[in-house]
Design brief:
By secondary structure, the chain is of the alpha/beta class. It is built from ten helices and nine strands. Strand 1 and strand 2 form a beta hairpin. Helix 4 packs across helix 5 and helix 4 runs parallel beside helix 7. Bound molecules: adenosine-5'-triphosphate. Adenosine-5'-triphosphate (ATP) binds next to helix 1. This is ABC transporter ATP-binding protein. Keywords: ATP-binding, Nucleotide-binding, Transport.
Length: about 220
Amino acid sequence: MLELTDITAGYDRNTPVIRGISLSVAPGEAVGLLGPSGCGKSTLARVAALLHHPDAGTLVVDGTPVRRWRHRAPREQRTAFGVVFQQARLSADPRLALTDLIAEPLRATGRRAGIADRVRELAATVGLTTDLLGRRPHEVSDGQLQRACLARALVLRPRWLVCDEMTAMLDASTTAALVRVVEDYRAATGAGLLAVGHDRVLLDRWCDRTVEWAALARS
Ligand SMILES: Nc1ncnc2c1ncn2[C@@H]1O[C@H](COP(=O)(O)OP(=O)(O)OP(=O)(O)O)[C@@H](O)[C@H]1O
């Protein structure tokens, strides 16, 4: 279970951008989070994925309260999450070939055995051909780069996926392909999903339930 309770967070302690927000995702559940631009969806998603320290409130992941965020979070908690952001180019090191980008979390956690096989397997899963794997981010399209970022998010086999506007920059066929990859992964592993977006039709089709930000902010 992913349980966010009474979360207050922002970028300046005196003026939080989200206040007293609670949201839970059950194991294996897919929850869509819908709301207008700037309301704080990404901030909440980053708190949930241990990437942003809240000013107040609690986060409990699979029964264990989170006490530290970002690089201070215990590895076991950090690696339970796979995260994909809207802007692949901002989340990809421009110096890394796609193969190294996908392998980054394996190297960062010292899991060096079988890296090449795992990258090949995931590249096929997300629909990246071998010739693309040696290219760097500026040598591939936004859709190809996002495929690599999704592969990177799955490489440690996370129990939780946070997709923050993952498909907002993509065409319909790439969107459908990436959603399918996430859903196949969830069907195989039972991972839970928090999917942030603007597109109600997509989120309703993709997720078990869609939550409106306005309802969260009222409750
Ligand atoms: N790094 C930052 N520093 C300061 N303010 C920020 C930062 N990131 C976001 N904000 C502000 O926090 C508020 C919430 O931003 P957030 O990105 O969480 O909203 P959002 O609902 O995800 O928006 P969008 O749908 O446009 O992505 C906005 O007013 C934004 O300007």
